[in-house]
Amino acid sequence: MSGDSLFSRRRLLQGAGAIWLLSVSPLGFAAAGQVIAVRLWPASAYTRVTLESNRELKYRQFALSNPERVVVDIEGVQLNSVLKGLDKLVRTDDPYIKSARVGQFDPQTVRLVFELRQNVSPHLFALAPVAGFRDRLVMDLYPVNASEVKDPLMALLEEYNSGRLDRQSVARNQGPQPGKAGRDRPIVIMLDPGHGGEDPGAIGKYKTHEKDVVLQIARRLKALIDKEPNMKAYMTRNEDIFIPLSVRVAKARKQRADLFVSIHADAFTDRSAHGSSVFALSTKGATSTAAKYLAQTQNAADLIGGVGKSGDRYLDHTMFDMVQSLTINDSLAFGKAVLNYMGNINRLHKPRVEQAGFAVLKAPDIPSILVETAFISNVNEERKLRTAAFQQKVAQSILKGIRAYFSSEAMLARRG
């Protein structure tokens, strides 16, 4: 079918469509599905298209060639202004989507056509309502043969989507790199800016998105670390992209990281709450109700960001009982070092490292912490989080904590 004929059935059925519309009762109109939002998230690893609606959408997807296109038919909806704006959302720097068109294919079906820049592997799935989102239909466009690309994130995402991302898939990379960290080789640090893409994280009173602030802090911290003669930093994401929690952990293990730092900006219903916090994993329950609640909200990131598969085989295979007590103890020591320096730039919300069952801290062999830099829900701290000066201070504090943690010969030897 040519591009010009994709919507030809719509023209042929216009008369019938008018008769059909007249025969539908007002009750029928009220029950019809309606797309209330369309979002595109282009990134180097994959591009995501999200349709949010007032009920679960039924769809059919297929491909066309010459030119390469992905076609999605949505049943039970009518073309509206939201859908008509789809073409304007496509960015010129999108690596996968060249253009998009939408039309009323027949009286009950809207057709979306995405012309592609390269051969892709589409993944479509539905997401049930969660947090502030209604029903969502998600389409992720991944490059074909991502594992051939020399990018560990793309390879891991391919494994994740095929259901092959489990403990065995990264076993060959398990454990620290050979040689003494900081002496024979660089200390490898994986930085994890929380949230991203469809998952904005917490949002401040002045519409500051947590995902944007923590990405800026992580970039600043990476720049500082890479200037150190004996350190090397990597990032789980360096774009506005959603990365599943298990993929973040797997990437740290694949890079054989010596440390894992997840960076966030806290939020609470009471806007007076303020201060910085540091958290580590717990195998015996949370150290406080607040820590338990925070872990639950952070672990919900996959539901909010959108994971198109049930279960999480990687995390299922690395449950709490596999996390060695030595790793947790190292995480607590690392967290304490960072917390001490965070206290020099901001009031501490709690004076000690707290613990809970954070999914993103579950690497069994990598000391891992989660840093809540400040409360984005607090107006004063939201203002600080938006400034380059405070972001730089946070980055410097975490770096000082890393240095302090590795200042002892025992810690250096342990990562060898």
TrEMBL record:
Might you name a Gene Ontology BP term for this protein? cell wall organization
Which catalytic reaction applies to this protein? Hydrolyzes the link between N-acetylmuramoyl residues and L-amino acid residues in certain cell-wall glycopeptides
Any coiled-coil ranges, and where?
Answer: none
Q: What is its EC number?
A: 3.5.1.28
Q: What is its main location?
A: periplasm
Q: Provide the Gene Ontology terms for cellular component.
A: outer membrane-bounded periplasmic space
What's the protein called, per UniProt? Answer: N-acetylmuramoyl-L-alanine amidase AmiC
Give the highest taxon in the source lineage. Answer: Bacteria
**Family, as annotated:** Belongs to the N-acetylmuramoyl-L-alanine amidase 3 family.
Which NCBIfam families does this one have? amidase_AmiC (NF038267)
Q: Show where the MurNAc-LAA domain sits.
A: 249-403
KW Endoplasmic reticulum (keyword) present: no
Q: Which InterPro entries match?
A: AmiC, AMIN_dom, MurNAc-LAA_cat, N-acetylmuramoyl_amidase_3, TAT_signal
Does the keyword field hold Signal?
yes
- What GO molecular functions are on record for this protein? N-acetylmuramoyl-L-alanine amidase activity
Keywords per UniProt: Cell wall biogenesis/degradation, Hydrolase, Periplasm, Signal
SMART domains attached here? Ami_3 (SM00646)
Pfam families according to UniProt: Amidase_3 (PF01520), AMIN (PF11741)
Q: Where in the cell is it found?
A: Periplasm
